Each structure stands twice: as structure tokens, then as C-alpha cells.
Predict the 3D structure of the following.
Amino acid sequence: MSIKDSGERTEFSTGAQRDMHTGKGRFDLLPWHAIHDVAKHSEEGAIKYGEGNVRLGLPQHSFVDSAFRHLKNYWTGKTDEPHLRAAAWNILWALEQETTHPELVDVPGRETETSEQKVEHHYECDFDMTDLLDLIRELANARGLTLEEALLGSENCAKHIKRLERGV
């Protein structure tokens, strides 16, 4: 395995050279004191909700709503908790989740309806079980999975689906 090389170089005043930095991000420009504050918020959240809870994913509107609420509280002078830090934490997780959980982005104008959301939408409405079965099949086919694989191997769910298929 070799070191990646863009073919472009940055030359420093010492004469040393390095591959170009453009497009890689500038971690040296990050506000480390603020990041440390957000890390404290993450620690407190892990104690309150459990290690890694936020990584499970939350509806995007929950992060955005909370960020706005904390910014409003900060702006109006409330000091009962670190509101600016909490707003930053929520904004960072909303940004993270756009990559890690795009299916949970439910902010108006930002969401794209996935098969999972179609199932959820149908669940919230009055629907026929065969509609749900069709949606699960569509999801399975889109992912190249069998119906059972789409149900994550849940024997109980698979049994119910097979009963529905037989019309029992």
C-alpha cells in the first residue's frame, strides 16, 4: 500500500513539501475550545441517555427544534443550562445525521421519501395489511434482499408475512 498522491504540492518556507490540502478540510482552523464544550455536552448526554444513544438516530426535526429552542434561550439571557453549547451539539448532530441517517431527515423541504418512510406513512394512516406487505416487498427488492432478509431475520414477523401471503 502506498501513500496517496494528488500530484500537487505545497511548499513551506522551510523548503519542505507536502501534498496539497485543498478539499481535505482544515482541522487546524477548528475552534477547539468550543469543540471541547460540545464534547462535555456529549459526555453529559451519554450519562443521561446511555453511551451511543444519539448514534441510533433521531428524527431530524428533533435536533433542529432543540437547536432553535436553545438559541432562543441563549438569546433571551437564560442561564439555567449551557444553551449555546446545547444548540451547537444539536446542529452538529443534525449535520452528522444527514450522512449517517438520511432516512430520518424530515425537515420540510429537505426530506426525500424512502421506502421506509412510505411504510411509516402508511402505518400512521388506516391501511390494509397487504399494502404494508407490498411496501416491504418493494423495500426488499430495492435492496436486493429476500422478504425475510428485509425483516432482519425476525422469525415472528416472517411468520406473519407468510400467513398474509397465504391469506390466513
Remarks:
- The longest strand covers residues 9-11.
